[in-house]
Design brief:
The chain has 5 helices and 13 strands. By secondary structure, it is of the alpha+beta class. The protein has one domain. Strands 1-13-3-11-6-5 form a 6-stranded antiparallel β-sheet. A hairpin with a 5-residue loop joins strand 5 and strand 6. It is globular, with a radius of gyration of 19 Å. The N and C termini lie far apart (61 Å). About 2% of the residues have low confidence. This is Urea carboxylase-associated family protein. Pfam families: DUF1989 (PF09347). InterPro entries: DUF1989, UAAP1.
Length: 277
């Protein structure tokens, strides 16, 4: 008889797993993470997790939180969605993020805008420079055609069904999922309009976001949809978040451009009216 054939056996087996290494398991509490960022105390950490290739994660983060994504081994691809945690019908609008700021490429001081013209987050540090705001994430059909499977439980999960699973944990459904951003696998637009896959900047690169509104954060770590490599190639992603301060009118992000400043002013007006700031 299997050792898990009875409730008692299953319980003992489950308890025996404590302390074993599971790549997608977060550190709970986050203060137990072994290596907080320089200058950050363990007590300030609010999220600490390694997301394996083909995995996903999610968290609700407070306004002013600093979120660091790190491409540990050089082939992570962090697809990211953001929602206003207080009213999740307000969500990341990639098209507005690009067109309002006259910039198709993500980098330091770029604001990630919502569909209400407010700032959900800003990019405050970036050692990678290889990101994409044009292609979105992968789908079940595309991954099935390319890798033989795209289901979330399969050997080559697509980003969209992983986002669907993550969103469900926050009462959101498939219709609530807008196009996403992706970090660590770059795409550049060629003069004739084609897309050139630039790939990764290498292992250990990171990008820091500062949350300007309380936010639901969804992350799927899957290959970029235009990655030309025939194999399903994606490696570990490190996710760390800690308590910090939101931007102020004196922050460089506010004055990055007239359009960005207006989005920050919209955000400040919203927060003031709600008594948040």
């Amino acid at each position: 008889m299997s050792t898990t054939a009875t409730p008692y056996g299953a319980r003992d087996h489950a308890r025996a797993q404590a302390g074993t290494v599971v790549e997608t398991m977060p550190s709970i509490p986050a203060s137990t993470w072994p290596a907080p960022p320089p200058g950050v105390t363990r007590e300030a950490l609010t999220w600490a997790e390694t997301v394996a290739g083909g995995g996903y994660t999610h968290k609700v983060l407070a306004r002013g939180t600093r979120l660091r994504l790190t491409d540990v081994e050089g082939d992570a691809c962090a697809h990211v969605l953001l929602f206003n945690a207080d009213q999740p019908w307000e969500r990341l609008n990639v098209a507005d993020t690009v067109k309002v700021q006259w910039n198709a490429y993500l980098g330091e001081k770029v604001a990630l805008l919502s569909d209400q013209g407010r700032v959900l987050a800003t990019i405050v540090a970036d050692s990678s420079g290889r990101h994409d705001a044009l292609c979105g994430t992968s789908t079940v059909d595309a991954n099935t055609e390319r890798y033989g499977d795209g289901a979330p439980q399969g050997h080559s999960p697509a980003g969209l069904p992983l986002f669907t699973l993550a969103a469900a944990k926050h009462g959101l459904g498939p219709r609530d999922l807008p196009p996403s951003l992706s970090f660590f696998q770059g795409v550049r637009v060629q003069p004739e309009g084609g897309l050139d896959f630039a790939g990764s900047a290498g292992a250990g690169k990171s990008v820091d976001l500062r949350l300007e509104l309380p936010s639901i954060v969804l992350v799927a770590n899957v290959p970029h949809p235009v990655d030309p490599r025939p194999d399903y190639t994606v490696t570990n992603l490190e996710v760390l978040a800690w308590r910090d301060q939101p931007s102020t009118p004196d922050s460089p992000e506010w004055t990055h451009s007239p359009e960005t400043r207006r989005a920050f002013e919209n955000t400040a007006d919203y927060l003031s009216a709600r008594g948040i700031a």
